[in-house]
Amino acid sequence: MLLRPIALLLALAGPAAADCRLAPDFGTRQTALLTEARSAPDAEAGRAVNERLRHLRLSAPDARAQELLDQGIERREVFDLHGARASFDALVDYCSDYGEGFHQRAQVFMLLRDPAAALADFERALEVERLHAAARAGRALALMDLGRMRDAQAELRAALALNPWLPERSLIVEPR
Fold first, then answer.
1. CB–CB of 148/113 below 8 Å?
2. Cα separation values, 1 from 11, 12, 167, Å
3. Residues 28, 53, 174, 143, CA torsion sign
4. What is the pLDDT of residue 19?
5. Distances (CA, A) of 73 to 10, 134, 163
6. CA-CA distance, 124 to 131, in Å (whole number)?
7. Is residue 37 a part of any domain in this protein?
8. With contact defined as beta carbons under 8 Å apart, do 75 and 69 qualify?
9. Is 7 domain-assigned?
């Protein structure tokens, strides 16, 4: 008799995180776009590639993940940062293999002025998606906020090696 209530609770909880998977061609498309960014002839072409990369990253693995992602972004845009964080918390709980969920939550932590929490999420995004150049640049910003300038510059250079057209490229400090 106890099994029925448990089965009902599991059914109501929705699909397990194991059901949330990136599209099989995500990595291939991301790699192709990063290659295109590195060969872009100028800033305008680079920005166009960045927009396509952003669109790819903001295409969540399934409808539930997309709903949580969109909800978090909408809340962040109106500065409901705690509501945005709640949406991104739900997203990373549901879809732990989707690096963009961690990246988006890290951005909220940066806006909440919690660079240590942001750093942890940027790092998790990079564990899941090692080629996430924007998460690498975000990690550099968190390191800067934590006063770790040498590490931040190294991380920023690594991000720009992946994608030289990131907006954060203006933060590079040339060695003396």
1. no
2. 16, 18, 59
3. negative
4. 72
5. 28, 16, 23
6. 12
7. yes
8. no
9. no
> Which amino acid is it at 38?
R
Beta strand segments in the chain, E:
none
How many helices (H) and strands (E) the chain has is answered by 9, 0
Q: How far apart are CA 18 and CA 97, in angstroms?
A: 9
Residue with tokens 């009902």: 8
**How would residue 11 be classed by pLDDT, with cut points 50, 70 and 90?**
very low
What is the extent of the structural domain holding 61?
A: 25-171
CATH of the domain at 159: 1.25.40.10
Contact 68, 83 (CB under 8 A): no
* Tokens linked to 66: 């997309």
| Separation of alpha carbons 79 and 144, rounded Å | 23
Tell me: the pLDDT tens digits for 100-157?
999 999 999 999 999 999 999 999 999 999 999 999 999 999 999 999 999 999 999 9
Residue 18 lies in a domain: no
Neighbours of 116 (CB within 10 A): 10
- The closest alpha carbon to 23, from 50, 69, 56, belongs to 56
Question: How far is the C-alpha of 26 from the C-alpha of 58, rounded, in Å?
Answer: 12
Query: What are the structure tokens assigned to 75, written together?
Result: 């809340």
Any domain includes 13: no
Number of separate domains in the chain: 1
